[in-house]
Write a structure and sequence with these properties.
Layout: E1 4-9, E2 14-19, E3 22-32, E4 35-43, H1 52-66, E5 70-73, H2 76-84
Parallel strand pairs: 4-5
Antiparallel strand pairs: 1-2, 2-3, 3-4
């Protein structure tokens, strides 16, 4: 079983997911006060179809919630993920709220 971890790389302003220590993907964000704007998600082709994108989204959204951040999903992947997981809809702010 692979060791999968999601962490906030604050210096790079992105959440990263690692698989056995290897970078598998990331979601880039911009903080604007109390808002965390998710702008881009990318998963390495080597990990496609393994659910890493969803695990990354869960980790990023759960961390944003824990920090009391409001979420602006500009990234199509994060926006679609929230649409399929209504338990995260309460985090969403309008883009310029």
């Amino acid at each position: 079983m692979a060791d999968i971890e999601v962490h906030d790389n604050d210096a790079a302003a992105r959440y990263e997911i690692t698989v056995d220590g290897r970078l598998g993907g990331y979601v880039q964000y911009e903080d604007r006060g109390e808002q965390r704007v998710f702008v881009h998600t990318e998963v390495d082709d080597a990990f496609e179809g393994q659910g890493l994108g969803s695990q990354l989204a869960v980790g990023a959204l759960d961390d944003a919630r824990a920090q009391g951040k409001r979420v602006v999903p500009r990234c199509p992947f994060i926006k679609k993920f929230i649409g399929r997981h209504p338990e995260y809809e309460d985090l969403v702010d309008a883009p310029d709220a």
